[in-house]
Specification:
heterodimer; A: 70% helix; globular; B: alpha+beta; 5 strands
Chain lengths: 364, 157
């Protein structure tokens, strides 16, 4: 196979998608952003920023530098309203491509305002996922668009593009560590960061206290090397679908251990990782279960099975969001209940896929 | 068209990473950029670790009682993940602290009132380093060294 063909295959045939699978992913993505990834997590933060003096306006180099200070609360509210309307349109599949791109751009703009206090948080995937996935035609099923325009062609190349972004971004996390001395056996960088998070930022929940008292040089050096190899290796894994999916699985384990140790959850990444689940299989399995439980096999059962799935998930997200905002647990950290549940749920999902694949192999 | 998008992205990603590195070195990290945090520093000092911290020492009107606030207490509305960056951007040296305008000082005073429930007259921004060493029972704090102290006057101390 020529290099050109390999390049073509990599772009267009690395991942397989279906209209139904993408439709389900679109709905869940919209719900996930709505319940867990809204920038600033509400109007109160925007009010705080809008009255902050210009002394503390320190936009990162980029388009936000065109502004002299924080915008008024009315501007925040306008952008937030645009974001919410476009997220709703994305959820319902109404002018899906436009809605997804608008949702992504408005999230990006809100994040930009929030980061103008002098600190950029690396949450760009929240905006990137809807923008890139807009080009997959994920409004081709379970949407107003599909009802209006009928069957539409779906595309899998946006998944390859998203994989490329994730792989490269992971590389940018690993490469500076090499320069910073993480691979030097006389430095235990992970342990140093643990102390920083534990003592300075008072992130002291879950297993962090146990890790602070665990002083084994070999263990900490092993973590330093494993982190660097994993993050740098992610870029090379993008070339092969199986490698990439394996790295996504390891990433979930990595975030889970980071959460236990450093109390950092990095939930926006999970939005992007979820894109690479086999949504066609999830859709088929859900439909099969619905038909088995209800005994109904007509065409309407397709839509009803999706509606039931989405409704259950929406209720689960809403309850989790509510419980998390009540601050009943994890009081010794800024870690939120929903973050623990999402990262923990991610790990369970990966474990489930692993077991399933092993069983399939055993069955031949 | 799609292949062209991929080629452009594959050229752009390393290019923007280079720009992030250069601009980040001289100013601060650009945005938007397709990068994840590097957590480059290793916090190692001799046989142990050094952790830099900042605290705000607030003086009441009578000038007697001292209340010490951590940045995350004073700026509780700012997400904890952003607090260190906010501190680096605005309280990293004497000059940047002294250049805070009257409006800025008024806002800081209001933050103190909200956080500590007192009427402050002055506040010192204290930067210090804590040193930790290895012990059988885990890391133990050895010592603390004050690095810098800058005063912000709200009124008469």
């Amino acid at each position: 196979m020529s290099d050109q063909n390999r390049f073509h295959n990599w772009i267009f045939h690395s991942f397989s998608v279906s209209a139904e699978g993408l439709g389900l992913l679109r709905i869940i993505t919209a719900l996930f952003i709505f319940f867990f990834l809204i920038p600033g997590q509400g109007a109160a933060h925007f009010e705080y920023l809008s009255v902050m003096p210009d002394d503390f306006f320190a936009p990162p180099p980029g388009p936000l530098m065109l502004m002299d200070g924080f915008p008024s609360v009315a501007v925040f509210q306008t952008v937030q309203t645009v974001m919410m309307i476009s997220l709703l349109a994305m959820l319902l599949g109404y002018r899906t491509k436009l809605a997804s791109i608008t949702a992504g751009l408005s999230i990006l703009l809100l994040q930009g305002f929030i980061f103008s206090i002098g600190k950029v948080n690396h949450e760009i995937l929240t905006a990137l996922v809807p923008i890139v996935m807009a080009f997959s035609n994920w409004g081709a099923a379970f949407s107003f668009d599909s009802a209006r325009w009928g069957e539409q062609k779906t595309e899998s190349w946006p998944l390859t593009l998203l994989a490329l972004f994730i792989g490269f971004m992971m590389f940018t996390a690993g490469f500076p560590k090499i320069l910073g001395g993480w691979l030097d056996p006389t430095t235990q960088a992970t342990q140093g960061h643990l102390f920083n998070q534990f003592f300075v930022r008072e992130r002291q929940a879950l297993l962090s206290e146990w890790f602070v008292s665990f002083d084994n040089v070999f263990f900490w050096e092993l973590l330093d090397w494993a982190t660097v190899l994993f993050e740098v290796g992610f870029l090379f894994a993008v070339w092969k679908t199986a490698w990439f999916k394996t790295f996504v699985g390891i990433a979930v384990l990595f975030h889970f251990s980071t959460m236990l140790m450093l109390n950092i959850a990095f939930v926006p990444n999970f939005l992007a990782y979820a894109v690479f689940l086999n949504w066609t299989e999830i859709y088929d399995s859900n439909l099969e279960k619905y038909r088995k439980w209800t005994g109904k096999r007509g065409v309407k059962s397709i839509l009803k099975s999706v509606l039931l799935f989405v409704l259950i998930l929406a209720i689960l997200f809403a309850v989790l969001n509510r419980l998390s905002s009540m601050d009943l647990v994890l009081l010794d950290s800024d870690l939120m209940l929903h973050e623990v549940a999402i990262v923990g749920g991610g790990l369970l999902t990966v474990a489930g896929i692993l077991v399933k694949n092993l069983l399939r192999r055993a069955e031949g | 068209m799609v292949k062209l998008i991929f080629i452009v992205v594959m050229i752009w990603l390393p290019l923007q990473y280079g720009i992030v590195g250069i601009v980040g070195y001289y100013h601060s990290e650009p945005w938007p950029a397709f990068v994840f945090p590097g957590f480059k520093s290793v916090h190692v000092f001799e046989e142990g670790f050094e952790i830099g911290q900042t605290r705000f020492e607030v003086y009441r009107e009578d000038g007697e009682e001292l209340i010490s606030l951590q940045p995350q207490q004073l700026f509780s509305e700012i997400p904890l993940s952003q607090v260190p960056g906010f501190m680096r951007a605005h309280f990293h040296d004497d000059e940047s602290i002294r250049e805070i305008s009257a409006e800025g000082r008024f806002w800081l005073r209001f933050q103190v009132q909200q956080a500590a429930g007192i009427e402050p007259n002055a506040m010192d921004v204290v930067q210090y380093v804590e040193y930790y060493s290895h012990h059988p029972e885990g890391a133990v704090k050895d010592s603390t060294a004050e690095v810098r102290r800058t005063s912000i006057l709200f009124g008469e101390r």
